[in-house]
Each structure stands twice: as structure tokens, then as C-alpha cells.
Amino acid sequence: MRNVKACVLGLGQIGLPTATYILRKGLGVWGYDINPITVKKAREERILNATSNWHEIPPVDIYIICVSTILKNDMPDLSPIFDVCEKISQKARQSSLVSIESTVLPGTSKKVYENIFQKNINLVHVPHRYWAEDPARHGVKQLRVIGAVNPESLNAGLRFYRDILEIPLHVASSIEIAEMSKIAENAYRYVQIAFAEELKMICEHKGLNFNEVRNACNTKWNIEMLEARDGIRGHCLPKDIQHLASLTTHNTILRSAMMVDKEYKKWLSLRLQQ
To answer: What is the mean pLDDT of the chain?
Structure first.
């Protein structure tokens, strides 16, 4: 196992715990990030081979992509994925495994597999489910989804994630299913929270205690209504619902949920001013 070498690209909130986990499993680990401050933090966390100079990364067996995808003008911008895949293509061998853990749109993995890697590597998509607030239960090692561009890639991905890293996996029938599952699960969470936000505004308008209504509802066996806090923030949920909504015009609930959250934040702001 110690002969297996891996490189984690993107050493932020997802990439650094991933690199640390792989290191604890006894593999040789390199880390790459364009931010020198992030690299410094990674070195302090024992990822000693972390660097912002791609030329310092040797050819390795496994490349794990954990860079952030972004929004530009409220539309998905996957250029960070394409940029690091171009870098990997300079070093990857035919036996190399490339794993995209970053959130991407359906079709992205096959696009980079065909257009950047020229079908000369193994490629899987294993979207992260890391939650920084509870890394013990929802960290790197939790049930994850895996999809692959072909059977050979799937076998390589299973050997790495399931057999070496001991991460439980749900195998998707296609890589597009895995890609869609990630943005769908975060968008679903967003919609659930937005419903709670709207209900809280309705309850207060009618002079009712939202938490009491919520607790009453949650006594039913198939109801698990979420809390309504200070609006939907962070990076993943607001970005991923936009990703899903961008795929089609069949996005009425998604767009409505985003409008509700915007209204709820304004409502909270007005309450603070009173």
C-alpha cells in the first residue's frame, strides 16, 4: 500500500481532510493548491508534500480532484475542473486513476475523459459528502456514491476507495447518475429548509409559535421538518441548487425555493431593525 502514491488537487475544506485521511492509510500523498496560504496550512497538517508549484508534483497513481466549482453570473463555472484536468493530463499514465470529488454537472466527467484525457486514463466521480460541523460521522469515510466512465475505471475506483481507503460505496449505473445525485441531494436539502423558512413566516403572521408547530408536525412518522435559522448560507447548497436549476426549464420549485430564502433573509433583517 505504501507504494501507492496519490495527489489531492485543491486543499480547502474538502481536499485537506481527504489528503489527511489518505495519509493515515499509509499512502504517499502530495497536495496541490494555487493558494500559498492553503498550502502552508496543509503542511502544518502533515501534508509535507503540499505545493502551489505543479512542476513539483511527480507522476502518481491516483489524482483526486477537490477544487471548488463556482458560479459566474448565477451560472455554473466549471473552469477550475478543466484547468486541473489539463494539468493532470501532463503527468498521468494510462494506468492512472483520476477521481473527481468536486461537484459537477452531468456530462462533465465524460467530457474531460474524452476531450482532455483522450480516454487514456481511468476516471471516476465520487462526490464528497463531507460536513465540517461533524467530521466524525460525516467526514471522508461515510457512505458515498461512485460512478465511472467504463468498467475498468469502476474496478480501479473500487480498489482505491473501497479496498484501500475502506470507504463504503453505492455504485451508480453510470457516471452521470453519480454527477446528478450530488447536486440533487443538496438542492433537495435547500428546498426543505426553504419550506421551513416560509412556514415560519406564515406562523408568525398568524401569531403562532413556529417551533411548536414544527414539533407537532414531526410527531408524524414520515415528517422530519427542518429548523428555520438565519437563511441558507455557506457555499454548497446555494451553488448546487443553481447548478440543478440551470439544467432545464423544469425548475419551478427550485426557483421558488431560492425566492423564499431571499424573502426570508429580508424578513429577518426587518425584524432585527424593529
So the answer is: 95
